[in-house]
Design a protein that fits this description.
Helix 5 packs antiparallel against helix 7 and helix 9 packs antiparallel against helix 10. The chain has one domain. By secondary structure, the protein is mainly alpha-helical.
Length: about 450
């Protein structure tokens, strides 16, 4: 038996705690690296291009989230399908899923770029760009969209690396991207005077270089899923399964796009361009801990997916318990930093005292109930990992559309800019309650099925 298959079989036999550490730590390291690369990119832009450049970057968040929605839909959908098929020992179908995911990433990545570039100015205006911030937002997105297919493929291949029992390779891919970007970005911004466009170019070059390394890994026949003839032609039932599972992360990112549009417009109306910049800074701080939690979830995905497919419900519940505990601890650390070091966090991105002051308040209020976010994310990730697409989509949609958006529409009428910041903790509390109620219901089902030897 080759090493890749042996590693996959360990998902059903190795102690769950050690297994989660084995998969989650590389994923957490990778996500931490990705969030740091995201943050350092913003720091370089803020310090090298000015306060309005930070605001211009914040205006691009909805479009970036929409691009990420398609990438996440394919990546999470395909990796979950692969994990479940490996748990069922159906290696041939797992490879067909891999090939179809590759094809989908290319088609969607290119199509999204072409459509977005054709209508870029109206899109950015709709997302909240003003005359002052539009040039920065456009310069950044033209380059980002030109390399969108590369970004889709990079993130998609990384998700599949984890599903194929190669968490260390996925970690190394993310770390290498960060290192390359951290080297190239300041060079392009300062010595080469390329401004905010230089930061975008550095990101695409870094991802393209590491993507070549990822493709080399999947070219090895010893990898449990690898490039081979006959796996790339789209198969309707495989595409449907990928989309059915991937619809939840797609919906989450697409909803985030919608919500950010409303946030940018509310902030522009009540606080101006600098308030939009403060949101951008706050988003980057919270993003670090969100990404670490995503790493925790990604460590859980192959373990939960495999054991769900193998009907090992006891192991399934244990990995949920450990993931939930770790997720809450991570977001609690984020909460503590936000409440005690908000000035220092804002100062990293800008020397503009007005922007720092607005950002300080935004960070403190927005992350007021942050520990609950960890539990909600772990719950959503758990349902994603076992293919319960409708439930994970419900949790994703409810947090942003049913709870956050109404609060965002109402509160600024009474509290102006503070109303925008307050909408987040209020929606976090409500979505936490909904997630725990649904999770408790399914935990009881799994315990009953374990006792009876039945499937859920």
């Amino acid at each position: 038996m080759d090493n890749s298959k042996q590693a996959t079989l360990e998902l059903g036999t190795k102690p769950v705690g050690k297994l989660l550490m084995q998969y989650a730590l590389p994923a957490i390291a990778a996500m931490t690296a990705a969030s740091l690369y995201n943050m350092t990119d913003s720091i370089f832009i803020g310090q090298g291009c000015g306060a309005l450049a930070i605001s211009g970057l914040a205006v691009t968040f909805p479009l970036q989230n929409l691009a990420a929605a398609f990438g996440a839909g394919v990546g999470v959908g395909a990796s979950t399908c692969i994990s479940v098929k490996l748990g069922q020992k159906d290696y041939a179908t797992a490879e067909r899923v891999f090939g179809n995911a590759f094809t989908l990433n290319v088609i969607i990545g290119v199509a999204f770029s072409i459509i977005s570039l054709l209508f870029l100015n109206p899109i950015l205006r709709f997302f909240g760009a003003s005359d002052a911030t539009l040039p920065y937002a456009r310069e950044y997105m033209v380059i980002t969209l030109a390399g969108n297919a590369i970004s889709h493929m990079f993130f998609g291949m990384n998700a599949i690396l984890r599903a194929a029992s190669k968490p260390r390779s996925a970690m190394m891919a993310s770390i290498m991207t960060v290192v390359l970007n951290a080297i190239l970005s300041p060079i392009f911004i300062w010595p080469l005077h390329m401004g905010i466009g230089g930061a975008a170019l550095a990101t695409i070059i870094a991802q393209a270089a590491v993507l070549c390394w990822q493709l080399r890994i999947f070219s090895n026949p010893q990898c449990i899923v690898h490039f081979k003839r006959g796996i790339y032609r789209p198969v309707s039932h495989i595409i449907k399964n990928i989309i059915a599972i991937g619809i939840s992360p797609f919906a989450m990112n697409a909803c985030s796009c919608i919500v950010i549009i409303f946030i940018n417009k509310a902030l522009t109306f009540h606080g101006g361009d600098l308030a939009v910049g403060a949101f951008g800074i706050t988003n980057k701080i919270a993003f670090i801990f969100i990404m670490i939690n995503m790493g925790m979830n990604q460590g859980m995905f192959p373990i939960a997916g495999y054991n769900y497919g193998a009907r090992n419900y006891d192991r399934l519940l244990r990995v949920l318990k450990y993931t939930m505990t770790g997720a809450v601890l991570i977001t609690t650390v984020g909460w503590a930093i936000a409440q005690t070091m908000s000035y220092e966090c804002a100062r990293l991105f800008t020397s503009d005292e007005t922007l720092i002051r607005i950002s300080e308040r935004a960070i403190t209020i927005t992350m007021l109930t942050f520990p609950l976010v960890g539990a909600q994310m772990a719950s959503t990730g758990f349902f994603q990992s076992i293919g319960k697409a409708k439930i994970s989509m419900l949790l994703s949609l409810s947090r942003q559309l049913l709870f956050f958006l109404p609060a965002l529409l109402v509160l600024p009428n009474f509290y102006q800019t503070d109303g925008v910041w307050l909408a987040q903790p209020i929606s976090d509390v409500i979505s936490f309650v909904v997630a725990i109620v649904l999770l408790t219901k399914y935990v009881k089902k799994f315990k009953a099925a374990q006792a009876e030897g039945a499937a859920v």
